[in-house]
User: Fold this.
Amino acid sequence: MISVRNLTKRYAGHTAVDDISFEVDRGEIVGFLGPNGAGKSTTMRILTCFLSATRGTASVGGFDVFKDSIEVRKRIGYMPENVPLYDDMRVKEYLHFRAQLKGLRGRSARHATGEAMDTCSLQEVRRKMIGTLSKGYRQRVGLADALVNKPDLLILDEPTNGLDPNQIRQVRELIKRLGERHTILISTHILSEVEMTATRVIIIDKGQIKASDTPQNLIRRLHSSGTVHLEVKAAPGQVIEKIESLADVKTAIHISSAQDWASIDIHPCSNVDIREQLFALSREQNWPLRELYRDTASLEDAFVNITGS
Amino acid sequence: MRQFFILLRKELRSFFLSPLAYVIIALFTFLNGWLFSSIVTAMRLRVNQHSLVYNLFDSGWFWMGYFFLFPLLTMRLFAEEKKMGTLETLFTAPVRSAQVVMAKYFATAILYIVIMLPIFAFFFLFQDITGELAAFQSGSFYGAAAILMLVGLFNIAIGCFASSLTSNQLIAAMITFVGVVLHYFLGFIHFFGAKLPTELLDKVTYFSTVEHRRLFTEGLVDTRPIVYYLSSAIVMLFLTHQILERRRWKA
Assistant:
C-alpha cells in the first residue's frame, strides 16, 4: 500500500528525514513512533502530497506521491496533527463539503457524511458550529473527515493528542474498528495505544528508522536481562548470599526492609527466567515469600531503549 | 471544474455568513452614498462641465475608500487558512491549487460586485427622482462599470498574491494596500517631483489607472487597458499559484 524508498527531506540547515525506506502492506495498522521532531509528521506530509521530498521516492497504492498526487490523494484519508478545521462551519455541513471535495456526489455524499458521523459518534453535535466543539469532538470530526470517502489508507497524525483518558479509549476503539477495513498509518506518543492496536511499529529518531517490527518482538528484545523482584521474611545479608550462590544470578541487591520483610532485586546472568529457582530456594530455606515477579518490558521501554532518550 | 464550484460555494458561504461582508457592504454603501449626495450638492451650487458619473469617479474621496476595500476583502483568503492549518487539509484532498486560487478569486470578485452595485443604483435613483441625466451618454455608465470591474479584478489578484505570502492577515492587508495605492499613483508620478524623461513618463502613464478611469468614465472604452488589467490579474494569480505550490517543489 505504501512504499517509501530512500526518502530524504532537508530544510535549510537541518535534515528532517534522512534516507528512510519502509513498506506498509494492505490491511496493516502501523504505528509510527518517535520523539518530537523525529520526522514523523514530515514523512506523513510527504506521503499525503503536502510536501515534496528532497530525494527518494514514495508511492501509495502504486501511485507516485509527486507525479500522481491527485490519484494518491483520492486514496488517502489524512488527519493532521492539531486537526485544522473551519470553525465557522457546522459539523454536518463541513463533512458534506469534504465528501464532495473528495469526489462524492449528491446522495452518495450525503450518505457518506451520515455514515462518517455515525462511525465517529457525531450525530448529536451535527448541527453545532465546529468552533464551539470540545477538543474530543474536534478530534472526532477530523477523523470523520479522514474516513468520509472510505479511503484505502488512513494516515493519522497523533489522533489522540490532548484527549482525556475516556476519549483516548473511545478513539482507540474506533481505530481498532477502522483497522478491519482500512490500512492505517498512525503516529502517536501514547505507546500503550500502539501496543494494543498496531500490527507493526516503526520507530524513527533523528530522521532515521531505528526499528521496524511487531510490538511483541520489540518488547521481547528487551527481555534479555529481565530483573526479578523478591520479597521474603529473612535477614537481607543471608538472602543475598544464598541467591548469589545460584549459578544463573549475576547480582542481588537489597532494596529495602520493612518489618522483617526484605525486598531484593535480582539480575540474572543471561536471558534466563530464574523465578522457579528462587521459589525453590525460599521453600528450601523456609523463607516466608510474599512477592516474586519478573519485570515485563513494555513498548515504552523498547522506545526509550531504541531512541536512547 | 466540479471541485472549483464546490470551493466557490464554500467561499461565498463563508463570506456571506460572516458579519464582515455585511459590515463592508454597509460601510461602503454609506460612504459612497454620502459622497454621492455631497457631489450632487456641489454640482448644484457650481456649474461643472462634467457629468455626475465622471465627477463621482474623479473624486479623490471615492478612491480613498476604494483603496481600503481590497485589503479588507482579500487579507483572509490564504493567510487565515495558513494560520489555522486548514491549507493542509485542503491540499491533501484531491483538488488542484489552481482550483483553490480561482475559487477564492472569483468568490471575492462576486463580493466586490455586490459592494459596487449600490453605487450604480444611486445613479438610476438620481435619474428617476430628478429627471436629470447622471451621464451625458450611456457609454459613461458602461465605461465606469467596466473600469471599476477591471481595476477591481486586478486589485483582488494583488490581494490574493499578498495573502498567499504570509500567515498574518495584517501583513497581507498592508502589502495589498501598498500594492494597490502604488499602482494607482503611477499616473501621478510627475506630481511628486520625479524628473523622468518624457518617453518614460508616457510609458508610466500608460499603466496609470487615473488615465484609464478618465477615458472610460467619458465613455471611451479602449481595449488596451482591458488587456492590461486582465493580463496583470492573470500574472498575479499565476504567482499566487506558484507561491502555494512552492512547498511541493523539490528542495
In short: The first strand of chain A starts at residue 2 and ends at 11. Chain A has eleven helices and 14 strands. Chain A has two domains: 2-213, 225-296.
